[in-house]
Amino acid sequence: MRLIDYLRDRIPPIIIGIVSYALVFIFMTAYRFSGESIAVISLILLLGVFSAGLWDFLRKRSYYNKLMLYSEELDKKYLLAETLDQPDFLDGKLFYEALRLGNSSMCEHVSEYCRENKSFREYIEMWVHEIKLPVASLQLMCHNNGDHKYSEQLSRIDSYIESVLYYARSGSAEKDYIIKPVSLKRAFTDVAVRNREQLQELDISLSTDGLDTEVMTDGKWLGFILGQLMANSMKYGASEITVTAEVFPDRTELRFRDNGVGIPECDLPYIFEKSFTGINGRSRSKSTGMGLYIVHKLCRKLGHMISASSQQGEFTEMLITFGRNDLHDVR
Question: What is the pLDDT of residues 91-105, one digit of tens each?
Answer without folding.
Answer: 778 878 888 888 778
